[in-house]
Each structure stands twice: as C-alpha cells, then as structure tokens.
Design brief:
The protein folds into 2 domains: about 80 residues, Multidrug-efflux Transporter Regulator, Chain: A, Domain 2; about 140 residues, Multidrug-efflux Transporter Regulator, Chain: A, Domain 2. About 55% of the residues lie in helices and about 5% in strands. Helix 3 packs across helix 5, helix 6 packs across helix 8 and helix 9 packs antiparallel against helix 10. It is globular. The termini are far apart.
Length: about 250
C-alpha cells in the first residue's frame, strides 16, 4: 500500500532508510507492473510536480522508496481509473492533508478501465468523462507533436474549444500510432472515423427520446443504453471486419 505524504512540505521524496535509486533503476522496478512506462514518462511526471526526487550535487536524480511507491500510485490511477493529472494531483494533495478522498465516480466504471487498456469494444462512461491537456495527451500516448498535428488536420482527433481533449483521445492516439507502424497513414484512416461517426449517430437516434424524458432515472437509463449499444456496435464492426478478411483469404 502506498504511504502518502502526511504534510504539505513532505511530498514523499525523502529517503526512507533504504538506498536511493537512479531513474534507470526506478524504470526497471516499475516495469514489472507497468511495462509501457518510459524514462520520458517519469520525467514528465516530475516536471508536473507529482514526484520530486532529490538531486545530487552533480544534478543526478535519486529516488527514494517513497518516490517509487508514489509513482506506482500515480500510474495505477492512470491505468485503472484513467484519471488526468489534474485530478491525480488534487487526490494526492487531499491525501497529504490527511483526508480520505474518493476517486471520481466517472472513472470507476468497468468500461472506463477497459478503455485505459485500449481494449476493443469499450467506450467512455458517459459525457462527463475526464479531460486531458495537450502535453498530457502527448506524454501519456507517447506520440510526437507532429503526429498529433497531422491527425488533427485529418479530423481523427479533435480538441475541444478550450484546447483540451476527451480521455478517449489517448486511446485513439495510441491506436493511430500502432496503425501507422503498418504503413497506414491518416488519409487511409478517415474512413474509420466516418464509420464511427455514423455508428455514433445511430446510437444517438435510439437513445434520444429517453434523454429528453423528465424522469432522471429514465435519462440515466439512456446513458446506460448508449454505452451498451456502443459496445455492441464496436463488437459487430470487429466481427464484420474479421469475417470479411476470412472471405478474402479463402
């Protein structure tokens, strides 16, 4: 269990009787549970003030055991609850004040946890899903500014009016990067975006009458139906693609 800070000045970065670790050692420790973590991700979390390793006179980072546990806690909240760094920071600050905050309900659904893992057939848990900033999107998805700019130019990823992104943009960016490794360019993938928008429109048509209902429980039922319909739609799409591929190879 993570030992969180107990005071505002103590951020859990002081040595705790054990040996201090270099960033490379910390990476190896964390990769047992988080195989996709990178040194750049650790440095990004440090730059955001979420962990503060001490520095040697020559400038090298030295992480304590508490630092490693804190990093694990942060990465776990991102992976299991898919929280943006702003919410994670507020959560850690509340723990440091001795409070016992609850994680936001929007991030506790199974669909959201599956989305964090990039699994097929998953959708965000409703329209109030968490948001991420541009820098956080780039760091979390581990993509470049040039890649993101290109995807945006083709409408594959669309920022909100305030410049933020829905949490699902991280998964989209990861998948676009993976497809790019097979030679698929943004211009090839626009048909997938168009198909997704048509499927979303179909779901909206089905649940729209329920969303306009006066009864709050009926409106909540509409959101549950939308999630289930979206999941079924994605599963059907995947099955149809697999079926089409089998037909072409026989």
């Amino acid at each position: 269990m993570l030992q969180t800070p107990s005071g505002g000045a103590d951020t859990g970065t002081a040595p705790a009787g054990g040996r201090s670790m270099s960033i490379g050692t910390v990476l190896n420790v964390l990769r047992d549970e988080f195989p996709e973590v990178t040194i750049s991700k650790i440095r990004f979390l440090e730059s955001e003030g979420l962990v503060e390793p001490r520095r040697t006179p020559s400038g090298y980072r030295k992480f304590s055991q508490e630092d490693v546990e804190r990093l694990g806690h942060i990465l776990r909240m991102q992976r299991d609850h898919y929280l943006p760094l702003k919410v994670i920071r507020e959560h850690l600050e509340a723990l440091a004040r001795g409070e016992t905050p609850q994680l936001p309900a929007v991030a506790q659904g199974a669909g959201q946890r599956e989305l964090a893992g990039g699994g097929a057939g998953t959708v965000p848990d409703g329209p109030t899903a968490a948001r991420v900033g541009r820098a956080e999107l780039l760091a979390t998805a581990e993509v470049s500014e040039a890649e993101l700019a290109e995807w945006e130019s083709y409408g594959l990823i669309v920022p909100a009016e305030d410049g933020g992104y829905g949490i699902e943009a991280v998964t989209v960016a990861r998948l676009l990067a993976e497809l790019g490794r097979f030679g698929l360019e943004s211009r090839h993938l626009r048909i997938m975006k168009a198909a997704a928008e048509r499927e979303a429109g179909l779901v909206e048509q089905v649940v729209a009458p329920l969303r306009l209902h006066r009864n709050p429980q009926t409106r909540a039922h509409a959101e549950a139906n939308a999630r289930e319909l979206a999941t079924l739609s994605v599963r059907l799409h995947a099955a149809l693609v697999q079926s089409a591929l089998r037909v072409r190879t026989t």
